[in-house]
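Handout, section B. The chain below has 261 residues.
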Amino acid sequence: MTHTLPMVDVRGVHKRFGHIEVLKGVDLEVARGEVTCLLGRSGSGKSTLLRCINQLESIEGGEIFVDGERIGYQEKRGKLHPLSHRGVARQRQSIGMVFQRFNLFSHMTAIENIVEAPSGVLGLSKAAARERARELLDRVGLGDRGDHYPRQLSGGQQQRVAIARALAMEPTVMLFDEPTSALDPELVGEVLGVMRDLANDGMTMIVVTHEVSFAREVADTVVFLDGGEVVERGASAQVLANPTHDSTRTFLARVLREDPQ
C-alpha cells in the first residue's frame, strides 16, 4: 500500500443501537505514525468508534479503511459483500486493541497470555512466540513478571501485559479505550509511560482518554466528539489551549478542574 494513504480512514460512519444513533456520520483520518486522542463526555461515541474500527460493532453506513484496506467488506463485481468470520479475524490481526479492563486469562501466566494468539493465530512456534513475549515484557518493564498470574499483578502491571499481548500480533495500529480508567491513580503513570514509548517508536495510535495531560504531551491530533459527531479537531496544542466549540471548552474546564495536572 502507498504510504501517502492515511493509516486509518473513517468516512461518514453511522452506528445506532436500537433507536439511538450513536455515531452520526463521523469522519476521521489518522496518518501513519500519528497519535490521535479522542476526547468527549461519556456517551459521545468515542468507544463505539474504536469498536467499529476493530469490527467489534458493525456499522450502518459509511466506510472504514485501515492501511488502505476496506474494513468488514470486500468488493465483488462492483458490489460490496460482508467478509466471512475468517476474513474479519484476518483483518483484526493487524489492529491491536487495549480495553478499560485487562481481559487477561486468569489461569494463564503473563507470558502464556502473550504467547496464546501468536502461536494459535499466526502459527508461530511456541519457542518463537515465547521469545517474542519475553522481549515484549521487557519492553513494558515486566521482564521479571513473566511467570506471574494476573492475580499476582497490580492493575497497572496487568494493563501493561495486555498492551504486550496486543503488540505480540505486530499490529499496524493500536486502539486504546480508556486504558487507565480502571486503575488506581498511582498506577496510571506506568501505563501512560509505556504508551509514550510506543508513540516515540512511531506506532500509529488512537486513544480514547480523559487524561488531558497525556493528550497534550503525546498526541499529534485531538478530536472532540459530542453527541456522536466530531465537533472539533486539530493539533493537540491548539485544541487544548484554545478550543473553539462550547462543548470542548466546557469539557476541558471540568476535566482540568478535577485534575489540574
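Note. The chain has two domains: 1-94+173-261, 102-170. Compare this with the example in section A.
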